[in-house]
Amino acid sequence: MKLQKTCATLVLGMQYGDEGKGKLIDVLSEDADAVYRVQGGHNAGHTIWVDGQKIVTHLMPSGILRSKCKVGIGAGVVVDPFILKEEIHNIESKGYSVDANRLSVDYRASVILPYHKNMDHIKETERSQHAVQKIGTTGKGIGPAYASRAYRENLRMAELIDETLLRSFFATHPLLTEHMDSEALNKLIEVGQFLKPFVKDVSLEANANLRANKRVLLEGAQGVMLDVSYGTYPYVTSSNLIAGSCPGGLGIAPWKLTEVIGVIKAYSTRVGNGPYPAELKDKIGEDLRKKGHEFGTVTGRPRSVGWLDLFSLSYFAELNGLTQLALMKSDVLCGFGPVGLVVGYKNKDTHQDITRYPMTTQEWAQVEPIVEFVDGWDELCVNDELTAKFKKFVHRVEKYTNVPVTYISLGAERDEGMWLH
Ligand code: GDP
Ligand code: IMO
Ligand code: MG
Known about the structure:
single chain; 32% helix; globular; binds guanosine-5'-diphosphate; binds 6-O-phosphoryl inosine monophosphate; binds magnesium ion
């Protein structure tokens, strides 16, 4: 697919995260002029394989590996400045240039401070002490940083990079002084000065790019089933992820977003706690986890594994206005036997069909998946043609969701994939 000019394309995870967004962004970045992160923080871990070298991005947009592509971090992101500094060095050490001509960070992005990380831990412990299941966060301070922003008491990049503003911010926010001593403040001043050249008005930059007919990509993080409003609340992350919220995280008009590519795996995974009707708790799930190397990129936790949930996918396809689907990791299912698809939900006790997407933890507890099996496949394509059995699976996904599958990933490497239609 060639990216269209004069419009922005959004790449969005359609499951519980880790669908392969990093790989797709890297593939699309070959044609892109700029790639922007718009929400979340370093709870994201996006993996890219280029010629046998593995690169994982957390805050850095995945377009960074394409030398002609500029990258930016929008106002909607929560930035841990120490992690960003580390990531800049790490990517440079792998032979890619990361200078202020390429990377920009919005003045208005919120800063994750060390005490946010502690607060993340405290909140999780509190939950488990109240006979409520932990959320199973990544422990990176994401939720507390967004909470501080909502309280309008958080530090932003604009203050971080200006020593006078930073000192005055601390003097007027006793909560911060309480949690940070002068050594911690000095470290912040130092990292702020390091990041200073990168901090700009990313919204203005993105709008200028669009006005100049440049090809712009928005890199979603997490997956829509973890959206703070529309996901499996409260077992979600703390930002909105759905397509409607993404232009806001960058500061561009919603109508400038004309393509929304939903990324799915041919099966599904989830890290952390929360409802997961499609989960396979048996040997099949265990085999799939091993074969798909399903261990968290950020925390190393084993991912729970299940079938592809078409019932949820079609709901979220509509909610996000998907124009295309990218199908990843189908190669993991090669030679695996019959492949399941969740085609509906029913009530565990009454066995009646559930027609509305569940809204509460109590409703989720009642859900049992309706699973349909299709023939498995041994190969994905022969002579650049999809094999008949795999094609049938792809068509089933398209028919159920009413969205065309336009990209099939054939492996983790950058050049393993094909565009359809
Ligand atoms: P992201 O967070 O959505 O970017 O996904 P992650 O990087 O956390 O997890 C996806 C994993 O699947 C990574 O290890 C990728 O290298 C890998 N991957 C992506 N696409 C494919 C594919 O088509 N086949 C295989 N076997 N692995 C893939
Ligand atoms: P990418 O971009 C998978 C999950 C956590 C936890 C919940 C809340 O790599 O797809 P948080 O630390 O955000 O408060 O944790 O959200 N989570 C992810 N799961 N992939 C991600 O990002 C995730 N980011 C957050 O595991 O269940
Ligand atoms: Mg990931």
